[in-house]
Write a structure and sequence with these properties.
Helix content is about 50%, strand content about 20%. It is an alpha+beta fold and about 350 residues long. The chain has five domains: about 80 residues, Beta-Lactamase; about 40 residues; about 100 residues, PAS domain (Beta-Lactamase), CATH 3.30.450.20; about 80 residues, Helix Hairpins, CATH 1.10.287.130; about 30 residues, no CATH class. The strands form two sheets. Strands 5-4-8-7-6 form a five-stranded antiparallel beta sheet, with helices on both faces. The protein has a three-stranded antiparallel beta sheet with strand order 1-2-3, with helices on both faces. A hairpin with a 5-residue loop joins strand 1 and strand 2. Helix 8 runs antiparallel to helix 9. The chain is elongated. The termini are far apart.
Length: about 350
């Protein structure tokens, strides 16, 4: 028996159906687990409920929600099975689309998680390879990470640093007024802050002169408002620079004193030159005076270097005779190598 609804759903007529096993509805799609469930239920005289792929007479796929239940006589013997079928193709299609969407979403989540993990690992590798102390903080100045250079320079451990407020690091050692000014007043309106100099006396490591660079990440995303703080310890470099400046200043003055005396003697020799002195002698005195003057100029320039580095240099504009400089250079080389056959050709003017 079949009702008209089954004929309409399957496309088969009653005469084509009666007397045939319903397996013809699966067509060639026979490898379905539901077929075995149906066979076991009929064999055991039990009810079952499955969703199985069926095909209409013209080969169109539809999902069949099949309920099978045995029919028994008064003696409890199975005489027939009744099957109730519902076309659930629309529902199944929506379900499959939902499952596909869920799978794609889960795949994207896995990919994004992997990308995030790789990005974080990449950032960590950058942080660790930077040759300066680097701290990463959130917008509330809580430390998210610190590289090994920072930990080694300031003699702290990661447990003492990560998760702590910047100003609480080292039992409050980093609560530095100049640092607060930079982070809370300058950085919000001048991003990034570069080469901000801070000097502070740390109880266990002494006075440190630090050059700070700070940058707040303003792009939208998971890193928005994170703050990168790079700390360069320039204490030793500044001390070396100061010693060099002191050396230049002392050396210049120490050399200047005897040279001034030599210049005075040369001026006396020029004024007291005998009238009958030979031209060769006069030339030697003149060249000597010239080279002493050049040495005096070099010392002045050395002093200028010291003044430049301390910011005390004063610039004075004056004409410079380039042709004379070239001529004097050539003459100096000739005088220094009188016994060698060196031909120097200079063109001036």
């Amino acid at each position: 028996y079949c009702n008209p609804a089954f004929e309409e759903m399957s496309g088969y007529t009653r005469n084509e159906i009666i007397g045939h096993n319903c397996r013809f509805l699966q067509g060639k799609d026979r490898r379905q687990e539901q077929r075995q469930i149906i066979a076991d239920a009929i064999s055991n005289g039990e009810s079952c409920n499955v969703e199985i792929r069926n095909y209409t007479k013209d080969g169109r796929l539809f999902w069949n929600e099949l309920y099978i239940s045995p029919v028994k006589d008064n003696a409890g013997q199975i005489t027939n099975f009744i099957g109730i079928q519902n076309d659930v193709t629309t529902r199944k299609k929506s379900q499959l689309e939902l499952e596909l969407t869920q799978q794609e979403t889960e795949k994207k989540v896995v990919e994004r998680t992997k990308m995030l993990s790789e990005s974080q690992e990449y950032l960590r590798s950058i942080v660790e390879t930077i040759r300066e102390s680097l701290i990463v903080m959130d917008k509330d100045y809580k430390v998210l990470s610190a590289n090994n250079h920072f930990l080694n320079t300031f003699k702290v451990s990661l447990n003492e640093t990560k998760g702590k407020l910047l100003y609480d690091l080292g039992n409050g050692q980093w609560d530095i007024p100049e640092l607060r000014t930079m982070m809370e007043e300058i950085l919000p309106t001048n991003n990034p802050v570069l080469d901000y100099e801070v000097e502070h006396d740390f109880p266990h490591i002494g006075t440190k002169l630090m050059l700070l660079n700070a940058h707040r990440i303003e792009l939208e995303g998971s890193y928005k408002d994170w703050i990168l703080l790079a700390i360069e310890d320039i204490t030793e470099r500044r001390a070396i620079q100061q010693r060099k400046d002191d050396f230049l200043s002392i050396a210049s003055h120490e050399l200047k004193t005897p040279l001034t005396t030599v210049v005075g003697y040369m001026q006396m020799m020029d004024r007291m030159m005998p009238e009958n002195a030979s031209d060769k002698f006069k030339g030697i005195v003149e060249k000597t005076a010239k080279y002493v003057q050049r040495l005096n100029q070099l010392l002045n320039e050395l002093l200028d270097v010291s003044r430049i580095q301390t910011g005390n240099i004063e610039l004075h504009r004056e004409a410079f005779d380039f042709d004379k400089m070239v001529a004097d250079t050539i003459e100096g080389i000739r005088t220094a190598s009188p016994k060698r056959k060196i031909e120097l050709i200079g063109m001036v003017g």
